[in-house]
Structures are given as C-alpha cells and as structure tokens.
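Hey, I'm writing a tutorial for new members on how sequence and structure tokens pair up, and I'd like a real worked example in the thread rather than a made-up one. If someone can provide the structure for the chain below, I'll link this post from the tutorial.
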Amino acid sequence: MGVVRKSAAPFVAPGPSGVAVRDRLKHLTAQDEHVLRAVGAHQGTLASRDLKARCADGPNHSAESWAGRKRELTRVSSSRIAGAITKASHDQWALARRCQAAHIRSLEAGIRTLKHRLSLPIGAKGTKRAPGGYRSRSEWFRKSRRLRTLEHRRAAAVADWQAGRVRVVRGGKRLFDTRHHLAEAGLTEGEWRQRWEAERWFLAADGESGKRFGNETIRVTPDGQVSIKLPAPLAHLANSPHGRYTLTSTTVAFAHRGVEWADRIEANRAVAYRIHYDTTRDRWYLTASWQRPTIQTISMEAARAKGVIGVDTNADHFAAYHLDSHGNPHRFTYDLTGTTHHRDAQLRHALTQLLHWARRTGVGAIAIEDLDFGAEKTREKHGRRKSFRQLISGIPTGKLKARLVSMAAEQGLAVVAVDPAYTSMWGGQHWQKPLTTPHRKMSRHDAAGIAIGRRALGHPIRRRTAPPPHDRSDRVGHRTVQADHGARGREGTRPPATDHAPGGMSPSGTRKRRPSAPKTVRDVPRTHQWVQDSLMHTG
C-alpha cells in the first residue's frame, strides 16, 4: 500500500501589485495615424538595436554599460524615451533568462522520465505516480533515439546558459515563423508585413511622479486629451509647443477604474502608458498602468472566520462550493465549453458571478488549488495519451489564479491556495455519494471543490478515520472527524422527516414519521414503566 503524501499547509495568496486599464483611440485623422506610425517605427528601431546590445553584454552587464547605452539613445530621442527603451530591453533579457532556465528544467524532466521507462522491461505496467515500460521493441528504440535528441538539446541549452546567450525575437517567434506558412495562416505577404511591423513598434513611456499628470512623454489630461513628446528627428511633426504632438480629434475615457486613474493624474502621480495598434481589428488602443501599494494579506484565522468558497477548475467545468466554518457545503457551478476564446470569456463571466455570490453569502476567502502542470503534460510521461495531455493543457489554471486574485482583491476577499494532493480522489470517495440526490447529480469535480474548501478551513477531507487499534468501540478516541467538540450546533436536532406516514404534522407543515414499536429493552422510551411478572422466580 502506498504511503499518503503529506500535504502542504494552505496559505493566503498575496494581492495584486499593479493595475492596467485600456481604452480605444477613436476618430483618429490620417495625420494622427501617420505620426503614431512614424514615432512607433523610429523608437522600435532604437529598441531593436538596444536589445541586441543588451543581449551581447550577457551576464557581464553593469551600470556603466547601461548608462552608455542610454547616452547613445538620448542623442537620437530623449532622456526619458532612452530610459524606457533600456529598461524594456533589460526586462526582456531577464525574462528570456527565466524562460531558458525553465526550458532546461523541462528537458531534464523529460530525460529522467525516458531513462526510467527505458530501464523497465518491455510491457511493464506503471503506477499512478510513475509510468511503466514501453509496449514494444520498436517503441523502445524510437524513445531511445528521442533520449539522445533531448540530451543534445539540453547540452546546447546549458552551454547557452553558461555563456549568458539568449535568443529573443522582437515581435514574437511565432509570428516570425508564420512568414514561411502564409497560406496555412490565411495571410498575404502584405498583411503579414503590416502585422510584423506593428508588433515591433515601441510606443510606451514609464510614469514619473511629480511631473504634470504623471507622465512627461505620453500625457493624458483629465479631459482625455492625448499628447506625445516627439523624438528629436521627428520634432518637425509637432503641432503643440515644446515639441509635442496632440491627437486632434480623439479623447480617452477609462470606463473601468476611471475615477482611480483621474485621482492619480490630478495628483501628478506616476502612470505608465502604452499605445498599441491591433492589425486584426484595425484599431488603436491606449493602455494605462500604475503600481498600487502592497496589500497586506490577512491571517488564515481571519480568512476562515466566515467560511470559504472552494473552487475546482477543469477544462470544461467550473465548480465552487460555499463551506461554512464547520465545512458544510452549498453549491455553485458553471460549465466551460466551446473554443478557447469563448471559454476565456466564460471564465471571466463565471468569476464575476462567483464574486457576486461570495459577497451575498458573506464569506471572507476563496480557496483554489496551487496547481502547476509544468511536468504533467509532457509527452515523455503520458506518451500516446494525447487527449489527456490536451485536457491538462486546457485547464486555465494560470488565468484563473491571476484573474481571481486581482478581482477578489477589489471585492475585499482573500484567496487561499491549498495543496492539490488527493482533492479529487478523496472528494469523490467521501463527498460525491452523500451529496447526490435525485434532483442533483454530483461529479468528482464537484466533490473536489468541497475537498478544496475543507482543506482551506483546516478540516480533514476524509469523513472518517481508521477504527481504533483495539476494537470498534470509542475506547481510545472517537472515530468520526467532523466538527470540533466545542463547536456550537454540532449536536443540533435533525429536521423533521418528510415521509408521508400517518400521524401529526410538524410545525413546518410536513408529516412526521410515527415511532415504531421498540424491539429491545434498550429501545423502549424512558417514560415506559416496567412491571415484573409475579410468577417469575427471582430467588
């Protein structure tokens, strides 16, 4: 019998540290679009050169080299634009390094799995925790060749890591590869070129507290008027004083968090802006973002005080259960079907409904699983089970955690992350059947939501522990692990029976079951008086 893995303690997830809102730039004139394209192309070229220089520095990067790059960019743009470009290049290089390290870990996990399966006899069966051997000799031979391929890739990736070499494509590697498959993508060369150039533009500026409206390069007034500080080579396109260009016939108004944004710019607090062109919709957008003070997470005791909502998310199902402080469940469910984009919209709608339901019930926290499928969806572990790998890849765990933490913080709710060990197994074993009724069908996913909520509350998932070691009595302790002995209401009366047996009616209007005749002396009510037979000899 396998040993049960000890689950990690639940914890309260930290709140969001930033905010981003977006609005469309409508009614742009031909001159407005010309200026935006010219500025984006010019600064995009500078950003590409600076990223190349940053990648060439590798781990030998220093503050002196950063300052030198910034001085070179300042001569052809401005000091603030140069600072934004160099910072973006540094962040991109750091992101590439993290992705490179994750790629090496993924290769190493695949190599370990392949070596394990190759060491097993042909046809050996696997377990839930480890895959078995390969089915045939030919499959074993193909996997041995794949092992050599992965080892070669790992050696190349490790060499790049040690040399500080990263491979970054401004505009995206996927879009770059699409150039060779235009027919499959349904694009012409001109459409691809337009999309490629738009993705490589750089129209962004970091905020600066103390400056007018929180940003000196891209400035948005409280009335929604947008103006841009032009770089030195494009200063002749300015239509406003001090080398600025003001978009003539468009204003922005952030419908979401508009009041918070207005309060920041009126107080001259930092707000970063980014202008983006969507080639598919042929629309221009302005995104505003700013940092928020770190939200202090509440304690676990405070999060559990009013109960929690346990959430279980799968590729096509979203189940949530409200559990009070004693672990009693109440249901909320939502189906996720359709395409990826449609399911993404469904997920947003489901989270919105979930938060509204949480506010109505008065809970203090929402519990989710701390999932990471990085090593669970590889072909080395699951082999031919492509449908299962696609199922795992389709579970929106990353989007759920990011959106739920951000949306819950706005509603004053905490998010508790729990260990996902055995939640589906024990939930289906202990909660699926008891909660199934003729009018309500329970699945393992529904039961997993209850298990997640109980683990967040600190209650065990399993409804009963093993019997005492001596016998089946309660000599060494009670066998049920339900509410604590000091919890109020644990010994409350049961609701009246609803059987249509003859007899009186309960106060609620339902019929009560008439007590049956006692079968033993132990079952006789205490009000019954026993009389000893006179013929019975007691001597």
